[in-house]
Amino acid sequence: GLRSFEGWTLLVLSGDDYTAREFAEYSRASPAWQGLLHKQTLELHEMPGADHTFSNSSDLQALNARCLHWLQSRC
To answer: Which of 24, 25, 31, 55 has its CA at 20 to 30 Å from residue 12's CA atom?
Structure first.
């Protein structure tokens, strides 16, 4: 889906998150994913200290600010 999607995409990965780590490792090693995370229409943002649910209020605020900035830059 991501390969054929031509619109803008924001991908946020939390650092303290097993699922995000699995995704990052898989996408780096998988031939099917090669180059997808470097598409010009994709912005990858990593949040090293955040957990899977952004349960820390400062992480959640930072996520919200990142999403809002990304949306505003696309309008």
So the answer is: 31
68, two tokens: 């809002």
Closest CA to 47 of 63, 28, 25, 70: 63
Please, which residues bridge with residue 24 across strands? none
pLDDT, position 11: 96
- In this prediction, residues 60-66 reach a mean pLDDT of 98
The reported pTM is 0.87
Planar angle of CA 20, 25, 26, nearest 5 degrees:
95
CA–CA distance from 4 to each of 1, 8, 23 (Å)?
5, 12, 19
pLDDT at 43: 95
